Amino acid sequence: MSNEKRTSADFFKQVFGRTVNVKLHNRTEYIGVLAALDGNMNLVLEQCEEYLEQKLINKYGQILLRGNNVLYISAKFNQKQQQEEEI
Fold this sequence. Notes:
Layout: H1 8-15, E1 19-24, E2 28-37, E3 43-52, E4 55-65, E5 70-75, H2 79-86
Antiparallel strand pairs: 1-2, 1-5, 2-3, 3-4
Organism: Paramecium primaurelia
Protein name: Sm domain-containing protein
Subcellular location: Cytoplasm; Nucleus
């Protein structure tokens, strides 16, 4: 990791269109492709799976998550994507 200063906008540019893991305050997790984001941190995920305590609850084609419910968003990169980012 470099000492270069990065912003949240940099993170979202990097993960837009890629698979992310979104955890809500109620401990529900969603894994899907980040399709849209607005200024209130409302997210649209596609090809989304819903998990509670690591158990698959449901699958959605597209889902809107309200920004104020989001605890964190993490990127899920496979090894090939990580190598491309390093280049």
